[in-house]
Amino acid sequence: MKIEVINTGSELLLGHVTNTHLGFIGQELLGFGLRIERQATVPDGAAIKTALTEAISRNADLTIVTGGLGPTSDDITRDIAAELFGRKLILQPEIYAKIEAYIAKRHIVVPDIIRVQAMVPEGALVLDNNCGTAPGLLIEEKGQTIVLLPGPPRELKPMWRDAFVPWLRNKLAALNRPPTYERVWRILGIGESSVQDKLEEPLKAFGDFEFGYCARPAEVDFRLITTDPAALDRASEFIYGQIGEFIYAENNATIEQIVVSLLKAQNKKIATAESCTGGLVAHRITNVPGASAVFHRGWVTYSNEAKTAELGVPAELFPAHGAVSEEVVRAMAKGALDMAGADIAIALTGIAGPDGGTPEKPVGTVWIGVATARETIATKKLFATERETFKHMASQVALDMARKVLIQTNN
Amino acid sequence: MKIEVINTGSELLLGHVTNTHLGFIGQELLGFGLRIERQATVPDGAAIKTALTEAISRNADLTIVTGGLGPTSDDITRDIAAELFGRKLILQPEIYAKIEAYIAKRHIVVPDIIRVQAMVPEGALVLDNNCGTAPGLLIEEKGQTIVLLPGPPRELKPMWRDAFVPWLRNKLAALNRPPTYERVWRILGIGESSVQDKLEEPLKAFGDFEFGYCARPAEVDFRLITTDPAALDRASEFIYGQIGEFIYAENNATIEQIVVSLLKAQNKKIATAESCTGGLVAHRITNVPGASAVFHRGWVTYSNEAKTAELGVPAELFPAHGAVSEEVVRAMAKGALDMAGADIAIALTGIAGPDGGTPEKPVGTVWIGVATARETIATKKLFATERETFKHMASQVALDMARKVLIQTNN
User: Fold this and answer.
1) Any chain B CB within 8 A of the CB of A370?
2) B270 in the same domain as B199
3) Residues B148, B14, A23, CA angle at the centre, nearest 5°?
């Protein structure tokens, strides 16, 4: 299946927004053994027509267009697609009613122009938008398909999974393509090249695989795709034997989801005491629905005074060891555990930069501690990168330490 | 000047790497009043030739190609460009010597094939690479220019600034072209379609503009592009007259950057007390470098007990009004202000969902409070969306309320 992607949006070409859709779509398609052959970015407006025409003339079986379905004057993807295939735009009362309901639910005043989103090219399949007002559209003509998806990621992703993937599965089944099977291992604590070194060569003996890697800050996804599900099971056993301690999840679970589910299963509560991560660990934990059952209290203690006042860190530790030290992180973790009456507590103190580093403690230094009633552990890391990535990497390691402690203490 | 960008690399289409070159190049060009008209991503290999041919046939004055200059078998951009313009590849002894020196300095073993990087198409301008071995190349033919840049960002960026920008400046001076000017207003508190309603028609009287919108959760960028800088100033005055209270920044500043810079300018400290946002507001504030000067302490009080123990929220408020209430958010804000000894405090309590809603307080309800020594204000919002977007939207409004209070209390 020849697939092209067209991302519309002047903001992408002006450098105001980074294109994250291409990566999302590329990874999703890989799960079906499909690849994008080409991608184009065009500004809002008439250039979309040229790009669509070119994709069709290159015999793309599937052209995926993102953006330009909103209500404003530069949102003309819908009109262009209708014109290109000679389809009339027809007002769909059902969609109109949905938009009305969506608006009513939010008690907001919106201008009439938003109702243009209820216009659908004749014969198009409507892809429901449960997170916004603009529905997606899918038009098939002479064996070629174009799919129009909304620009905002929080609308595109659920629409992709809930409305487009079912269509794609049917299409692939109708084409009699042998189904492909995919498994992803999410790995924290060793890098991409170590994973490749340990796994890729030996795995070739277990079956005919396509290998995939996706490295993100402080974690890497290792992906196998094959037409033989039994080979996947054999491979999995080998993979866990080699690097099992570093695998925190399979498929799409995040480290915070794993930590929250371990806490729930063990009926435990967690507390957080953050300096350099500034609330990120608590934010990630509370991104998980139902976190309130396992997380009651957290502190952001950015100053030394706050660490002493809120967590009972002895003030004499700061002149003796510095705020970024094993002694302070242990006191923070133990203080949070006690003050919150929790079963486990995470603490972090470090130098996020860009300023504040010294030769002994350069920017990127972070101490991470995890306390339980049984013991407190602490580790030092160095993430010499920019501020936000540093915060993210530190939170990754902190959550993974909590995961390991929860697994150990439950045995 | 008609500009196209071609990014080569299978990893971009497979979703393993996000394309950050496009954003960098887009912003850099904007600084010269230039815009990218089109961008394509193609896999390594022969597809580069098709993409380059198409750009040239569309009469692109300047085509910027990234990637494919390395030594491995799939790095063929150099050969394709030479072939396309009928230029011979000639070994350049100077570049050869530089590559040798680069390798010697690093005491690394490299395969002979790396020396292919010393091959230069006849008549091409060589762009020095001070951070790697592959030089960039610039070829001009019949008024069209193609520029070949290396794929790794740490090689591309310095080469762009040190070697390509000087060429571009000369070129623009020779062309005598009127530059274009851009301005972006970042807006919080009214939606994309309201902005269009209020601004687009009347602004047509102020000059010849291109309009652009970029909507993100709870905010929208409004962009004007024109060749007349005076028209931009007239427009700006009108825009502030119409929706000034909703504009928190121009160009690329974030709301948290604005809040931190107001706090710094006023020598004030902020504290946070978060329930439903779970640390996100503190996380955003501490993403800003230098936040430690204005932020010392924050709480994540997810349970009622935590709100009482940490912030002194009277326990009787919970049975009387519920945790998501004006009374509780005011007590949280005031408590955080006092406990932290801060000048301003933000508090949030709401129902992030997916569970926990009632008919009176549906999922998405949030009370947001801001306290200063002078007064405490509170507002209720409804963001009926999924959990993470809810948290983000609530944090947006909270930070914007703090911004407005800081501006008012300073007058």
Assistant:
1) no
2) no
3) 90
